[in-house]
């Protein structure tokens, strides 16, 4: 259970991550919006990043520009991801 | 210079070198070029024991796994010369100077069906033969939408070469590694029915640290997983493409490899295993047919293995790591 409540968009994204990556034993309530998604936090890996990128494109029409930038900033945490979707969503 | 990698040495002056080669070929023709190439090859053969040993190791493994393969006398020197001829033809192809009559597509029906299916796919090539000749495929089949995934550093060199070219320009997707943005871009091309060419026997582009040891000529060798993961995620077919030199000209082989169209998530790992092994097996079979067209002049079986390599656990880490070396690319 995380201490910080999720915004509706963060909640939606948490569900997207869990469903896309078929994460077992994780609910959106377990994800702290500031925790890292990759490595230590949620423990996603480079394949998950590819899948997440494709899911963001499919659901929100988001086009990522560069791999290095995406990994460093947009995918850092749920909060960062929500900011990306907020700014760049086309659907 | 002597402790440098052979292909690195060749590569260092490659743009000037390639233009000189092209000039020599233009003025002196095949015979003149081959005469000069012979002396250049002897020079490199003497000066580069690492490449010579790699060539010998490859030839030994090939002939011990396939005793029916016959190599000519002075096989490692001829191997070096074959590389020089391939370099010449690579430049000629980029300059649109390979006559289309010299390029024969062996599996034309397969290629036609692949195009008309509208599903697109990933075309996996290798450093066996000369896949640059396949730039000509776009001219032979105008309905084939083809892009080439290339490491940024190679692409820069490639563009310099192309800047003097009059031939048709291939569509190049420049990347430094396969990440989410690349996956999206490739997905777009494939959804439009296009094909993306990726070299799958080395790791200039890959998912950092992701490789598998496969049985190759009776010994385990590491191959990058990247192309197969992309196919699995994009749920598209993969094709094996090879373009090799024969007496009569260039032969293009285009064969189905593995299709991720109906792949389920939990089957991915096994599918990648099978697909990668199928790729390595096809590569090995074609090595038997074109033994001197193998242009991996480095210890191919001595690559880092998954066992001694830390797993790439995070996309963050892989973004921060050093880009893969380009030194193995001729």
From TrEMBL, chain A:
InterPro entries: ACP-like_sf (IPR036736), PP-bd_ACP (IPR009081). It comes from the Bacteria. Gene3D superfamilies: ACP-like. PROSITE patterns: CARRIER. Pfam families: PP-binding. Residues 4-89 form the Carrier domain. NCBIfam families: PRK09184.1. This is Phosphopantetheine-binding protein. It comes from Larsenimonas rhizosphaerae.
TrEMBL record, chain B:
Keywords: Acyltransferase, Cell inner membrane, Cell membrane, Membrane, Transferase. GO terms for molecular function: acyltransferase activity. GO terms for biological process: glycolipid biosynthetic process. Residues 309-330 are annotated as: Disordered. Its main location: membrane. This is Glycosyl transferase. It is found in: Cell inner membrane. One of its GO terms (cellular component) is plasma membrane. It comes from Larsenimonas rhizosphaerae. The lineage of its organism: Bacteria, Pseudomonadati, Pseudomonadota, Gammaproteobacteria, Oceanospirillales. Residues 314-330 have a biased composition (Polar residues). Coiled coil: none annotated.
């Amino acid at each position: 259970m995380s201490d910080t409540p999720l915004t509706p968009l963060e909640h939606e994204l948490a569900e997207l991550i869990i469903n896309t990556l078929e994460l077992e034993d994780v609910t959106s309530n377990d994800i702290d919006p500031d925790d890292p998604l990759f490595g230590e936090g949620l423990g996603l890996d480079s394949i998950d990043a590819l899948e997440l990128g494709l899911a963001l494109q499919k659901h929100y029409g988001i086009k990522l520009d560069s791999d290095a930038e995406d990994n460093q900033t947009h995918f850092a945490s749920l909060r960062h991801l929500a900011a990306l979707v907020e700014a760049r969503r086309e659907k | 210079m002597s402790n440098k990698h052979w292909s690195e040495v060749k590569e260092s002056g490659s743009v000037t070198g390639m233009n000189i080669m092209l000039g020599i070929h233009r003025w002196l023709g095949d015979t003149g070029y081959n005469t000069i190439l012979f002396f250049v090859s002897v020079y490199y053969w003497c000066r580069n024991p690492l490449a010579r040993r790699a060539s010998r190791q490859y030839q030994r493994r090939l002939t011990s796994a396939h005793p029916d393969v016959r190599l000519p006398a002075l096989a490692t020197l001829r191997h070096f010369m074959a590389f020089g001829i391939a370099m010449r033809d690579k430049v000629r192809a980029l300059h649109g100077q390979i006559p289309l009559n010299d390029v024969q597509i062996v599996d034309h029906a397969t290629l036609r069906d692949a195009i008309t299916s509208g599903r697109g796919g990933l075309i996996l090539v290798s450093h066996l033969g000369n896949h640059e000749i396949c730039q000509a495929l776009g001219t032979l089949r105008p309905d084939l939408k083809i892009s080439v995934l290339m490491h940024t550093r190679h692409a820069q060199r490639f563009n310099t070469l192309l800047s003097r070219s009059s031939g048709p320009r291939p569509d190049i997707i420049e990347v430094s590694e396969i990440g989410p943005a690349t996956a999206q871009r490739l997905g777009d091309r494939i959804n439009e029915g296009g094909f993306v060419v990726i070299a799958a026997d080395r790791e200039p582009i890959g998912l950092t640290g992701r490789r598998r040891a496969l049985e190759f000529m009776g010994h385990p060798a590491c191959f990058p997983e990247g192309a197969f993961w992309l196919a699995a995620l994009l749920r598209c077919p993969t094709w094996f493409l090879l373009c090799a030199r024969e007496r009569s000209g260039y032969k293009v082989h285009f064969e189905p490899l593995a299709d991720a169209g109906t792949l389920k998530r939990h089957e991915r790992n096994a599918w990648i295993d099978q697909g990668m092994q199928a790729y390595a097996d096809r590569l090995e079979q074609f090595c038997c047919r074109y033994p001197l067209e193998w242009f991996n002049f480095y210890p191919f079986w001595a690559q880092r293995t998954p066992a001694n390599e830390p797993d790439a656990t995070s996309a963050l880490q892989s973004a921060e790591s050093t880009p893969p070396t380009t030194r193995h690319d001729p």
